[in-house]
Specification:
CATH superfamily of the domain at 28-111: Glutaredoxin
GO biological process, one term: mitochondrial translation
Main location: mitochondrion
Mean pLDDT: 84
CATH architecture of the domain at 28-111: 3-Layer(aba) Sandwich
Order of helices and strands: EEHHEEEHEH
Family: Belongs to the mitochondrion-specific ribosomal protein mL43 family.
Radius of gyration: 28 Å
Number of strands: 6
CATH class of the domain at 28-111: Alpha Beta
Shape: elongated
Number of helices: 4
Pfam families: L51_S25_CI-B8
GO molecular function, one term: structural constituent of ribosome
Distance between the termini: 73 Å
Strand content: 15-25%
Length: 187
């Protein structure tokens, strides 16, 4: 069993206020890439700069990208977020593809430091079934869809509950009772 969680800062869930209501505001504000023009540790960063940095900047117009060559220094990427947080990512010996993937992760994150999430309730016997989330029963095919999609997400059809079945039976009995009263002429 891992005890990593004991050394992590704990906090409650924090999210940028109203982000995503109306329009989404990306939290990554600025990327500063520092690299060496000659050192072999910076090869992946140099390849990323030559091949992908212009496309990345065009795809993300809300993010400012700075390139700073530094002689005889290990490459790193400084990420600055709208909430004032900064994060430094070591790019030593990263390939071009790995660096692009890390920048995509940073682009989608809020800038809040990784913390162990606390909850308001406590139990001495936690559930072995795990925690329910809104994505628990969503089919994995939705991970590959591009939203908004034409067909949209449809929740799987659930089985009728016992209460719903009883209500339906009762409604049918009432209808039959009314029909028999009407045909016999009694009120």
């Amino acid at each position: 069993m891992s005890f990593k969680h004991l050394f992590m800062k704990s906090s409650f869930v924090k999210a940028p206020i109203q982000n995503g209501i109306g329009r989404y505001v990306g939290q990554l504000q600025r990327i500063t890439v520092k690299f060496c023009k000659e050192h072999s540790d910076s090869k992946g960063v140099r390849d990323f700069i030559e091949n992908q940095v212009v496309d990345f900047a065009k795809q993300n117009p809300g993010i400012v990208v700075y390139l700073k060559p530094r002689r005889h220094r290990a490459p790193h990427v400084k990420l600055e977020y709208l909430n004032g947080e900064t994060e430094i990512l070591s790019a030593k010996c990263l390939s071009e593809r790995e660096l692009r993937q890390w920048l995509e992760v940073a682009r989608g994150s809020s800038g809040e430091p990784v913390a162990r999430l606390r909850k308001m309730q406590h139990t001495d016997r936690p559930s072995i079934q795990g925690v329910w989330t809104p994505w628990t029963n969503v089919p994995p095919q939705t991970n590959l869809e591009t939203f908004p999609s034409e067909e949209g997400y449809r929740a799987p059809q659930r089985e009728q509950t016992a209460t719903e079945k009883l209500r339906e039976l009762f409604a049918r009995q009432q209808e039959q009772k009314q029909l028999t009263e009407e045909t016999t002429g009694t009120s």
